[in-house]
Design brief:
Length: 299
């Protein structure tokens, strides 16, 4: 994506939402850290439902240790992988209480050394709790950055590094939130809502959807509800198999007499090739007989 387009893209995001916020509910940096750890392979909505009662009782590491692992599991049992997450939260709370006086460190390496905390979690905490211009690349940002051509990469780290170079400094603080919310609600994985997209005219994504969208040559791109258009693999477009044709093959299977099944492809009679040959011979004999009977008698 060109620099001018990148500037325009973030200018539009900023105009629509000048101060975007994450959707995880928290009280302080510690509860934010706990919420982000719980959000791995879970939805923010599901995490918030579980943590509202928990955070009413617990808002610091010492209180979490007093609550105990068993009680913590009961609070978060509606969240996926809650057993391992409960263990990690208790362990990181022990470290914070013992080594940092109950405070959440502002150093990336220290954060990533905590149980259950990876680079993405550290980036979220640094950005939201401490105002660092970090970009946490989750599945939504990974998809949006590649589709827009904003920052292409095959791994989250590669996309993160590319975004750090591409995003103008003036927009870097909120870039994480703009991109994740855009991916969560507009540029979705299976059925992107391109007709509602604020930046659709800047987007080079080939499989745009929506009745109002047209291709550069004037033809419609895709159909409503068909998110990704023709599937691609290794840079080549995979063609859909036609009825009666094996995917990836250039020729149809041999035809044989018989009734069409529901799928539309002809099938061989139960007798196999010999039975089919007999049927065809009978048909040809009948045709010859009918022709002879209709022929005019010779004088």
């Amino acid at each position: 994506m060109k620099k001018a387009d990148i500037e325009e893209l973030f200018a539009r995001f900023a105009a629509r939402s000048p101060a975007p916020r994450g959707e995880l509910e928290y009280i302080n940096p510690y509860t934010l850290l706990v919420a982000v750890v719980l959000s791995a392979q879970a939805t923010d909505k599901g995490v918030n439902k579980a943590t509202r009662e928990l955070f009413a009782k617990v808002d610091r590491p010492q209180a979490m240790l007093a609550l105990g692992e068993a009680a913590l599991r009961r609070h978060i049992q509606t969240i996926g992988l809650y057993n391992s997450k409960a263990k990690n939260i208790i362990r990181l709370s022990e470290i914070l209480a013992r080594q940092y006086g109950g405070k959440v460190p502002t150093d990336r390496d220290a954060l990533e050394a905590l149980p259950g905390v990876g680079r993405k979690t550290a980036n979220v905490v640094l950005n939201i709790a401490f105002g660092e211009p970090t970009i946490a690349v989750d599945t939504h940002i990974f998809r949006v950055a590649n589709r827009l051509g904003l920052a292409r990469g095959k791994t989250p780290l590669a996309v993160e590094k590319a975004l750090e170079k591409a995003v103008p400094e003036a927009y870097r603080q909120h870039a994480h939130h703009w991109l994740i919310l855009h991916g969560r609600y507009i540029c979705t994985a299976r059925k992107p809502r391109c007709e509602e997209c604020l930046v659709r005219d800047l987007c080079p994504y080939d499989a745009k959807t929506g009745a109002a969208l047209v291709a550069r040559d004037g033809a419609r791109i895709g159909k409503p509800g068909k998110a990704d258009g023709p599937a691609k693999a290794d840079g080549k477009t995979r063609q859909k198999a036609k009825p009666g044709r094996a995917p990836g093959r250039g020729k149809s299977p041999p035809k044989a007499d018989g009734e069409r099944p529901a799928g539309g492809a002809k099938t061989r009679p139960a007798g196999g090739a010999k039975a089919g040959a007999k049927v065809r011979a009978k048909v040809r004999a009948k045709v010859r007989t009918n022709a002879q009977n209709k022929a005019p008698a010779s004088n």
